[in-house]
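pasting Importin N-terminal domain-containing protein for the record, 973 residues
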Amino acid sequence: MAASGAEGFAPVLAALSTMQSNAERSQKSQAHEYLEKFQKSPGAWSTTHSILSTTDATAEAKLFAATTLKGKITYDLDQLPRQSLPALRDSILNFLTTFRDGPRPIRTQLCVCLVNLAIQMIEWKDVLQVVGSTLGNSGGDCVLDFLRVLPEEVTEGRKINLTEEDLTSRTKELLEDNATQVLRLLTQYSQSSTSAASNPHLLECISSWLREIPAADVVTSPLFDAVVHALSVEASFEAAVDCMCTILRDTRDVDESIEIIQLIYPRLMSLRPRIGEAAESDDEDTFKGLTRMFAEAGEHWVVMIARLPNEFRGLVEAILECCARDTDRDAIASTFLFWYELKQMITLDKYKPARNQFADVFARLVDIMIKHLEYPKPGGPDETDLFDGDREQEEKFREFRHQMGDVLKDCCDVITVTECLGKAFSLIQQWISTYGAQATNTKVPHWQELEAPLFSMRAMGQMVSPEENIVLRQVIPLIVQIPNHEKLRFQAIMALGRYTDWTAQHPEFLQPQLNFVIAGFKHQSNEVVKAAALAFRFFGTDCRRLLTDHVTQLHDFYESVLDELPPASQEEVTEGVACVVSAQPLDKIYPMFKAYCDPIIKRMMSRANDAKGAEDEAARLAVADYVQLITIFIQQIQPYVSPSLENPAVKYCQEILPVMSAIAENFTSSTPILERVCRCWRYMVLSYRTAVLPLLPTLAQQLASGFENSRQGCFLWATDSVLREFANGAEFVEASTSQAIYSFFEQQALAFLRIMNDLPPSDLPDVIEDFFRLLIDALIYYHGALLPAPICSPIFSAAISALTLQQEAPLTATLHFLRDFLSYGTDHPNSSSFDETSNTARVINSPDIQQCVKRMIAEEGEVLTQRILTGMMFSFPHDCFPDASGVLLTLFEIMPQQVAIWVKGTIGMLPAGTVKAGEGERLMSSVGMKLQQGEVRKVRVLLQDFTNSYRRRNVAPREGLGRLEATRFRFNG
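structre below
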């Protein structure tokens, strides 16, 4: 199999050298393309052997050769005559002998090569014996590598080109039938020497074979002694922890594993003293490994812990000790899942005794967590530099705090919210009594010890019932007196924002809190101002009834702060005041709506005048932000009004509709403005539903002209809400209105088709996504009118054209539409019905509608089949596969024989050399058999497997798909 001389592989080495150099991107791209083609070529077999055999190639080149050989064996073994496979096996064994002492990456790739060959070489029955005898007694690590790889590769056997039956049979031969022998071999090796017993490769091998060998067999064998021993050897500690965790995972079914757990538990607990030793010696790796091991034992045995709390209390205390001693907070995260799982179990009534037994543990856990929440003390003179300038570490700490907050919530479930809050309150009191008198506006001593319990209160906020009547009454008056330190003020405001639900039930506490939050808007820290805006939103939302009499004062406050806030905070404050306006009596809704929004409209128009210049992007974004604020008022102010009366909110919307229309007409090229305007119109429909009927003619006209002029998909998104709200059968909607809405929809569809005629799909991904999401609803509500309509056929063609896209979102929308569309060619479409008298669970489709769909499939089905199959083989994102194969499945359900012909034709048009000999014929034979047996759904699996296999073997042809290249969509309407 070897090519003669270095000249046979010189181009490959040159391309590899280019890839590893500082060459220009174009050169690297050419080299990458060359190497990809090389890896697919039949010549790669001999070239890889030459590279692996020569002394002229670098280790990197040999690793590439071994990796390429692995791919050839996995995907291209049919390129070799069957009778040459023993020679291939022998050459790989020779390479393994050469590389048995390393480098390990090459050795591992060669082991994978041999395993993948063994899987497919089903006539090779004595795999372990041949490998063992060839590599000999001196091949220890190499044999262990092979044994480790074997179960990993076999269990991933779906990528191997074998039938399900052959793969199942081969899996049994290689794994199940060899499990006892492997256990014996590994045991013998572990007893051969002291170094062998703690060899990390041995432990990795045990972990891998625990897929096949029951944990009970390992635990009751001398191998378990080796695993435990390896935990005391530094070089093997990490591998031993992985192995022990794999064993523990196999004992999750505690009822079946009780005897094994009884053997493991004392050995595990004997390691507990090492937690303290590792912590005191600052041995981070050992401490993290021990924490992980104890935590995983707790996770897997949590049912046993709940049943037998006395017997397993030692394990729970060991995990608690890991939490307490983790001063660097590097290991504690691995315990979080255990605490959650334990909480889930012991809060069940049947495990109440365990809950009582572990109450003190969770109480100590609260103390530990709050202590870990503390910011570090600054290491230098700069009091604000808490992480030595390490921003990544600071961000990690912030995220970590929220995870610890979740653990505090678990504690609330176990030992009650009041007790957990009481601990935070006690720490706040303690700080005030110790340091409160020393605090000034410029210096707050040991502020970390006050900020942590404040954060814990914020974290536990959602667990607190509005009826809590012990701790909050005492702690909230303390919070509003917190010293003026940035992080303290921020945390205090955020904490108050979490208790607005409680405040709504205790109005006597509202005013001091509101004053404290509003004062935060004047703070010099932007973070505190943002916190104040967020908290104000919660106060407005939850305490709106208490604030109705303050609506005028709030208006003055709103006007005074609005222009000083960043956009996100503007939205939060706006939501807060909008909620208060929404709580006004009906007769005050319109004047207050107008009072709050007219100044925003004036600001918006002023910035719109400034934004006419082509360069003033900031002014355009400001216009979009003001439109968003108006939308928030529309979202929140939804008064209940009898259908016979005028809606005061709609009255105001009618006033501002011309302004919004003018904005849309004047900024047809500004996507942010148009998206916000369309969102505003959409929420007019969603908030006021049929009450918006007086606005409908103008709104429809604006949506139609806006889409035609701007070609922005947001107009279709807004159209969708109109279509759904005024569809056939909707309550309080006349048939004539629904018919007018359908005509409006057709107008939008016509505009879309004209745009698709002018531009390729790659220029319109967002518009395509919005259009086909609109089409999905149109099918639900108007299928009776749409499917027989002349416009339906070009819509179907446009959907097929859109399948050339490679972005997931528009493709998903298009495929969902196609699945729904094709379902109308069956008896039961993917639809819903407004017919309340119907007793059938699913809509029955009329023969006329089915015929319309079948006619269009007959016209375009071959092209659709081509686009779906080529998409699955070349271009579709992986997450689109289920929907794409779903389209094929429905096609087969409607026209099985015809679609089989189209599939066969498509495979025949694939680029030469990309389909294995006989592969297409075998696929079509299997498809035909499944169709004859009436097992249409199994055809979907066959096609998925074929396209997956094809895609793995072939890169998308850079010179195009030849006869399968898509044609441009054309529309003459």
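The chain is about 70% helix and 0% strand.
Residues 847-875 form the longest helix (29 residues).
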